[in-house]
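dumping the sequnces here before i forget
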Amino acid sequence: MSEVTAAEVAKNGLWTNNPALVQLLGLCPLLAVTGTVVNALGLGIATLAVLIGSNTIVSLIRNHVSDAVRLPAFVMIIAAFVTCTELLMKAYTYELYQILGIFIPLIVTNCAILGRAEAFASKQNVGMAAFDGLMMGLGFLAVLILLGAIRELLGQGTVFADMHLLFGAGASDWVMQPLGDSYSFLVIILPPGAFLVTGFLIAIKNAIDAANKRRADAKKDAPVKGAKRIRTTGHIS
Amino acid sequence: MAFKQISSPHAHASQNTAKVMQLVLWATIPGLIALTIHFGWGSLINLVLATVTAVIAEALIIKLRGRPVSFYLKDYSAVLTAVLLGLALPPLAPWWVVVVGTLFSIVIAKQLYGGLGYNPFNPAMVGYVVLLISFPIQMTTWVTPAALLPEGISHPGLIESVQIVFSGLNPADGVTGATPLDSFKYADGLLVDQIYAQNPLFSQAAFAGVGWEWVNIGFLIGGLVLLASRIFTWHGPVAMLAAMTLMSVIFYDGGSSDSPGSALMHLFSGATMMGAFFIMTDPVSSAVSNRGRLIYGALIGVLVYIIRAWGTYPDAIAFAVLLANFAAPFIDNYTLPRTYGYTDRRRATEKEEDS
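..and the predicted 3d for all of it:
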């Protein structure tokens, strides 16, 4: 993994290697806090900030920490950023901080973050590592928001409820109720709903990939009639 | 052309999936009749609605999966799932409750896992549990048995029932009420004798609970017919009912105010008989061997009693069956039948057969 372009990093983070839909890392917060858009957004932004910060610092120290102690060092760095994020959320979005509760400190244990530190940031220069953190974080955030929106809509019939927790009092009337006042479908809000919706999202992503692959295959040159083929598989003795 | 060598015994199957499913469908009729006599047209409407939804959903998903539609529809498994769910749901439940439950059963619990034969959980019970935790109000509103309706009020007729189900028309006061298990659970501080004397659900009953006892007898008759026609073996149902009886005898507590109720009440209330003969005998999601089915059935019986007695839900067949479905592969692993002549046990995970 020596030469990577920014475009590859972006595509990896957002789609091909999406931490939530492909690597299936960080499932615990993904499933636990995506009951509403605002919760998902809060935790997604916190994770994004930690990911950028930790990737940058890990890349900076990559030549100065011996291999034997690199994992504890990474974890310390991540924990430091999580603590900063937690204090910031406590200061500026206190209610949301209370709702998310234990899941903010638990960002430390999010495998997506340690995974990127180990697999990417510790081998790349600072700029690329920070960019990878941004893209991976955005990929995770996007899935969180999508999941939150779907579950909020199907589960309690609202979208963007309680946005004032994150965006100030002006945002409290962003809430929409496209399905009527009394709609509720509890199972989607409860943990099984998170598994169900995540499963469907992964299935949709795989279906899109498969369709793209089919299209790409179809574009390839059709075999010319009468052309000789060389046997490349099997073993003739 | 190579001739196929067939050695004895030359047994041929007289049963196939469709025949078995049809027989089970016919066997639900005594229970359905009892439900209709005692609780009105609601169950019949549930049943039709669920069946139509299930057949449409099954056809769409099979088409989506690129499989032959009519071949899979003809095995009647979707119809059976829908009928069982329809019988389990409260009569006069709103139409969307029935439709959502059936969709969950067929689309998610059955087809997404690979269709008939691949579903680890009983589809009808998955649908039921999804509804129970999502719509607690609609799912715990039962119809009062015909014998206990207030003076001058009768169950809504067929047309009115359809209106109640589809347009949200409210049934007359007194048409809905608590089930025996419900009222027993929430009669705090009363001795068992006092509950039996005060609550007409018990005082006017022949032996267990007005209406419910006949529904359970109906399913018991249907179940015995299935047992006699060797659709399933006795192991599962007997183990379940025996375990329930044993639990309720042990914890009867002399009829004190903490008593969870008598064995007779537990055996003939709620969905006990339907669960014992129609739900837990599902060959796909239950344990496979006879010894395994004994354990599987007993596990369900114990779980049902525990949840009924000390849980928050008055009835528990669905939860107990789903939990036991989880355990079925584990039970199978330790109850692998041996061929004749072997005495030592073997686990299914052992790859090599010891000589």
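Chain A has ten helices and no strands.
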